Amino acid sequence: MSFLKKVGAVLGALAVTGTLLVGVPARAAGKEVTxxxxxxxxxxxxxxxxxxxxxxxxxxxxxxxxxxxxxxFKTAILVMAAGRNLPDVFSYWAGARTQFVVDSGALRPxxxxxxxxxxxxxxxxxxxxxxxxxxxxxxxxxxxxxxxxLFYNKKVLAKAGITAAPGTWPEFLAACKTLKAAGVTPIALxxxxxxxxxxxxxxxxxxxxxxxxxxxxxxxxxxYTDPEVKAAMKLWKDLVDAGxxxxxxxxxxxxxxxxxxxxxxxxxxxxxxxxxxxxxxxxQKAGEDYDFYEFPVIDPRVPKAAVGPVDGLxxxxxxxxxxxxxxxxxxxxxxxxxxxxxAKAQGALSPNVKVDPAGYSSVMRRALDVVSSAKAFAFNxxxxxTPPAAEVGLSMFAEFMNNPADxxxxxxRAQTQVSEVFKKK
Length: 425
Prior knowledge:
This protein is α/β, with parallel strands linked by helices. It folds into two domains: 3-144 and 309-354, 3-Layer(aba) Sandwich (D-Maltodextrin-Binding Protein, domain 2), CATH 3.40.190; 148-307 and 382-423, D-Maltodextrin-Binding Protein, domain 2 (3-Layer(aba) Sandwich), CATH 3.40.190. The protein has helices spanning 3-14, 45-59, 70-82, 96-102, 111-116, 125-132, 154-159, 169-181, 198-208, 211-218, 227-241, 254-263, 274-281, 322-334, 336-346, 362-373, 381-384, 387-402, 407-423, and strands at residues 32-37, 62-67, 89-93, 133-134, 137-138, 140-145, 148-153, 185-187, 266-272, 290-293, 305-307, 310-315, 376-378. The strands form four sheets. It has a five-stranded mixed β-sheet, with helices on both faces. A four-stranded mixed β-sheet has the order 8-9-7-10. Strands 4-5 form a two-stranded antiparallel ribbon. Helix 9 (198-208) crosses helix 11 (227-241). The longest helix is centred in the C-terminal third of the chain and has 17 residues, at 407-423. The protein starts with a helix and ends with a helix.
């Protein structure tokens, strides 16, 4: 299946309407490097702009910056790749999405830059192995990574009498029951843009069927109609049926859900650590106003996995300033000031081992400890499976929140669609 047809499949699944980014800004004269990224608004635009300015000051290379909204970027960058109209550098999510573009021949390997910059001594081996290598070559430089946990309003849970984080599924259900009895919606979910629902699916599968089975499902080697998947979805349905989720989840985005928790209208939300950057911007205090706990253990025989994305940077195969692009990537990962500033602004963990953890909040230091001690680190759903398959699943999760009772039929339809995706690979 050609790359153009694969992109067409993604666009068809998205049912895209409106205007897409279809190119990069016109180049000015002089030494410069072009970049497109999804770090806009609450996702760190001010911070990345300052980091680019510092790079320009230190190197004399001008950064032609072309930011695009997070959701629009997912489609726009594929359109640009299909048209061979990519910027020198662009941000991308490590995992299946990067593999998808690598396989199209649209990216440039960076093995030489990785070696000359000494990145084996900068990037932890686990992240380097899982996020940067594709078809045996380096293609991606990690810029920041996140962990998804159950972030909660400390005062709300304390007022309800919940003083210890629930570590097991029965304890979690008891906490939800206690919050509901206290007049607080236990769980906020803002699945308007579909992707926030994936974390529930991810953890329920990982905590019951385990990382190996989940990897097979993501690769099309297991079925959405398997008993393992049905069992996970049944657990999710039970939570919805019990009234533990805020109503009309698909009408809210992730910041709406975060706001419900910070206001005390809901007790917790399952979200990535970028929520800490959002709450810090609202003058919430880590460890005082909010905290997190790990997704509870359901089956103690299953290895505990952490879930999250790795934000990375790649160089296009047709980069006009490949050397400048490599210089920018090397700066963004090796400059500890840039890495520390980015981690603080975005609520991210730095993939640079030389960044002092003392700069993290108490909540982020614990997140780092959880990731470090996890038996496995799994990319979240839409980064763990190929983009056309991810579109099927993300739509299914949103549909589930509207009609959880229909999950067996939803799984059957998803399997039919996903099997077609992997058949065409």
